[in-house]
């Protein structure tokens, strides 16, 4: 019988996805999985074939759950959310139960004692044994039970956090009968606001807190009061602020999450939650992480203060003194225009999404000798979503879904996730399939989707993640693609690919004016490159503020004492912030990365991996941006190897040494005079 969530094909049945069967199907699969595990754990022969059968069981469950989880993120409905939320509880219980199974643990120990097996197989077993230990294997029964309860609670709390944030973001709107209050907004954003109003049977324009619309208002709207209203609404999302529904307040959720994490860490033998987080990371200690972050903060601080002083001075000239948080992006854009004769909106017409995508595919082809072809025969969940194959010498090696535009019911941000993972067994090879998701301004009837250069880099970033998943040559699912990769190294391929967006040799490939077809003119290209590091130190300090906040918060998260998320934010701001914040700014309550997205005590990963990616790109700077030798090393040492070996070892094999901070400082424009 065909599983209704998987279907007979290589891709999920998105054309008629059976939401009404999700709960019953997942529960039936879990019941069957328990029965199979009960047989596996008492078998006499524990060998690599035994492991492959376990992997097949896990993969079937993953293939069924993946589309449910993904659809809940990209086209959420009440029915789907209900099914998803119920299944989260069942799946969490299953994974904890697996992790505390003594008989199964002993089977893995037998595998670990073998002297044969591939590197990938042995690493998969090592990771599994680590997973058992992080589930409380060997602890007294009452402690194991408490760990199971905590993991169950954390899964529910994180899920509630995401739901509250999505609901709050989508509930807030501001309606304008005409455009008189919207002066300065680009035509593309006005068109989107008009379409949003029409969709609600309203005349005029409807502003929302979707990221593309919010950023457009912050950067371009001349109406200061309008900017203030949107800013206050955005930074207080999922809080108790009066302009939001109290039902979406994440304050209690966040504190409960921290309390549960602290208790979990103690039960597993760690001093705090940051130590628990580092058990699966490339970084070796709390001190190592904080040393990197504080070093970067010290190097960036003086330059960031100078950059903000320029904002304050220019704001005064514009009659906006004292500068307020909702003025910063607006004034900064004016400074960019004055200093570089360049506006983000002046660039946007040269980056229609279809041209950028085509250029991205060409860059990937030149680097890795793969072709990318669209396949309109594969069903998707929305008319704007495309499906593509990666081909090497005419043969498919992977596929991906491209879902690029913001819409109602879709979680904000940009991300890559796996739909299918590479796996090889007697029946053949299952090729990897990725979900690549962004939230760009959608096309209107008059104007195609036009990207800012920042959005171009976002697209390249997510495709870098996709390549890590799709170009893998590892056949063991647990360490294939992005699976098993240390979290603080997983951003290496994504941040690395961003560099090509800035290369004069690449710009003609990704740019063509949507009306004339003209590539980005040389004069604009020179301005773009000159402005590359505009306010780079301010951006650096802002990211470090997030990372240090996250890591220190979780380093203080213990069973005996749980820090206040908002009080810790105030402490970090007093120490690091350069840009002022309004009193109702409750950033942690919308910080999904660390409370719902897997980055708890791990947001530092972006800077950690940026050290790696900048250092890695320096090899391409030395040998040529399309150097076959450099691309081959990247493929052979990083992209094809997945999580089959420690990230530090793979990087040393790629670069011949450990990464240094020098390239990051140079790429970021952090000047030695400010060090």
From TrEMBL:
Domain Oligopeptidase A N-terminal: 27-143
Peptidase M3A/M3B catalytic domain sequence ranges: 217-669
GO MF entries: metal ion binding; metalloendopeptidase activity
Cofactor: Zn(2+)
Name listed for the protein in its UniProt record: oligopeptidase A
Catalytic activity: Hydrolysis of oligopeptides, with broad specificity. Gly or Ala commonly occur as P1 or P1' residues, but more distant residues are also important, as is shown by the fact that Z-Gly-Pro-Gly-|-Gly-Pro-Ala is cleaved, but not Z-(Gly)(5)
Record EC number: 3.4.24.70
Native organism: Umboniibacter marinipuniceus
Keyword match Metal-binding: yes
Key words of the record: Hydrolase, Metal-binding, Metalloprotease, Protease, Zinc
CDD domains according to UniProt: M3A_DCP
An individual GO BP term: proteolysis
Annotated family: Belongs to the peptidase M3 family.
Keyword Protease: yes
Source organism superkingdom: Bacteria
Assigned GO CC terms: cytosol
Cofactor mode of binding and number, as noted: Binds 1 zinc ion.
Enzyme class: hydrolase
């Amino acid at each position: 019988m065909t599983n209704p969530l998987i279907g007979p094909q290589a891709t999920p049945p998105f054309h008629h996805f059976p939401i009404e069967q999700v709960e019953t199907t997942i529960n039936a699969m879990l019941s069957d999985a328990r029965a199979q595990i009960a047989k596996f754990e008492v078998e006499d022969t524990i060998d690599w074939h035994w492991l492959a059968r376990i992997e097949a069981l896990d993969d079937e469950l993953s293939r069924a759950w993946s589309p449910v989880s993904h659809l809940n993120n990209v086209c959420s409905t009440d029915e789907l959310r209900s099914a998803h939320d119920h299944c989260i509880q069942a799946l969490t219980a299953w994974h904890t139960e697996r992790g505390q199974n003594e008989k199964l643990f002993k089977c893995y120990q037998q595998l670990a004692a073998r002297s044969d097996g591939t590197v990938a197989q042995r690493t998969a077993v090592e990771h599994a044994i680590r997973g058992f230990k992080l589930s409380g294997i060997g602890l007294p029964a009452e402690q194991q039970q408490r760990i199971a309860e905590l993991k169950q609670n954390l899964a529910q709390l994180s899920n509630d956090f995401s739901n509250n944030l999505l609901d709050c973001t989508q509930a807030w709107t501001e309606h304008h009968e005409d455009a008189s209050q919207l002066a300065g907004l680009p035509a593309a954003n006005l068109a989107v606001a008009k379409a949003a109003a029409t969709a609600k049977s309203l005349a005029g324009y409807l502003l929302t807190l979707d990221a593309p619309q919010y950023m457009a208002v912050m950067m371009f709207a001349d109406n200061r009061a309008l900017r203030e209203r949107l800013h206050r609404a955005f930074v207080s999302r999922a809080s108790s602020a009066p302009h939001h529904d109290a039902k979406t307040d994440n304050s209690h959720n966040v504190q409960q999450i921290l309390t549960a994490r602290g208790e979990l860490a103690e039960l597993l033998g760690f001093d705090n939650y940051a130590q628990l987080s580092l058990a699966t990371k490339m970084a070796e200690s709390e001190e190592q992480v904080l040393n990197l972050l504080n070093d970067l903060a010290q190097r960036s601080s003086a330059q960031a203060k100078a950059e903000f002083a320029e904002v304050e001075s220019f704001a005064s000239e514009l009659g906006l003194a004292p500068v307020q948080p909702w003025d910063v992006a607006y004034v900064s854009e004016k400074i960019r225009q004055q200093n570089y004769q360049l506006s983000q909106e002046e660039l946007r017409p040269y980056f229609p999404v279809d041209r950028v995508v085509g250029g991205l595919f060409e860059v990937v082809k030149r680097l890795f000798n793969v072709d990318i072809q669209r396949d309109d025969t594969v069903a998707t969940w929305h008319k704007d979503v495309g499906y593509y194959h990666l081909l090497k010498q005419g043969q498919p090696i992977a596929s991906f879904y491209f879902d690029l535009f913001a819409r109602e019911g879709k979680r904000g941000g940009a991300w890559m996730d796996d739909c299918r993972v590479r796996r090889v067994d007697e029946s053949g090879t299952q090729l990897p399939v990725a979900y690549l998701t962004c939230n760009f301004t959608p096309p209107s009837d008059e104007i195609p989707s036009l990207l800012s250069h920042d959005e171009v880099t976002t697209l390249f970033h997510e495709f870098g993640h996709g390549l890590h998943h799709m170009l893998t040559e590892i056949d063991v699912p647990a360490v294939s693609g992005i699976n098993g990769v240390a979290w603080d190294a997983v951003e290496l391929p994504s941040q690395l690919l961003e560099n090509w967006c800035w290369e004069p040799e690449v710009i003609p490939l990704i740019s063509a004016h949507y009306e004339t077809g003209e590539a980005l003119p040389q004069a604009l290209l020179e301005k773009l490159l000159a402005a590359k590091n505009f306010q780079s130190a301010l951006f650096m300090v802002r990211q470090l503020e997030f990372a240090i906040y996250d890591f220190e918060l979780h380093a203080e998260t213990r069973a005996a004492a749980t820090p206040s998320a908002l009080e810790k934010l105030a402490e970090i701001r007093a120490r690091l912030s350069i840009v002022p914040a309004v009193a109702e700014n409750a950033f942690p309550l919308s910080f999904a990365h660390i409370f719902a997205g897997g980055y708890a005590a791990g947001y530092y990963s972006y800077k950690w991996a940026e050290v790696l990616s900048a250092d890695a790109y320096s090899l391409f700077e030395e040998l040529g941006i399309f150097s076959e030798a450099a691309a081959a090393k990247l493929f052979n040492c990083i992209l094809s190897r997945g999580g089959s070996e420690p990230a530090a070892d793979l990087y040393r094999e790629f670069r011949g040494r450990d990464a240094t901070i020098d390239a990051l400082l140079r790429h970021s424009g952090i000047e030695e005079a400010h060090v």
